[in-house]
Design brief:
Elements: H1 3-27, H2 35-56, H3 63-89
Helix pairs in contact: 1-2, 1-3, 2-3
Length: about 100
């Protein structure tokens, strides 16, 4: 295993940790979430579950990079939706009258 692959595997682990943190916050009702945010989180978790074996033992060189990019996109989408939900639920307007 070369340095790039080791680095990419670590990135995937970090993304998985970030996703797990977001899910735990939602479960604890620490952040509001719409059905769309929940759908995006389920999609990311399903992808992670399906690709775990390929991440730990890839069939071909560069496979981990592609998986990491896909997972990163899914996590980013879920995180952006959670943030949008939080802003929408905020009692303070985005641009209060001055």
């Amino acid at each position: 295993m070369d340095f790039d692959e080791t680095e990419m595997r670590e990135a995937v682990r970090e993304l998985a940790g970030a996703l797990e943190t977001m899910l735990n916050l939602i479960k604890a009702d620490a952040l509001p979430a719409t059905p769309e945010a929940h759908r995006l989180m389920r999609e990311a978790m399903a992808f992670l579950d399906e690709s775990s074996d390929r991440i730990s033992a890839p069939d071909r060189p560069g496979e981990v990079l592609g998986l990491a990019k896909t997972l990163n996109g899914l996590v980013t989408s879920a995180r952006e939706q959670i943030l949008a939900d939080t802003v929408a639920a905020s009692p303070v307007p985005d641009y209060p009258d001055i």
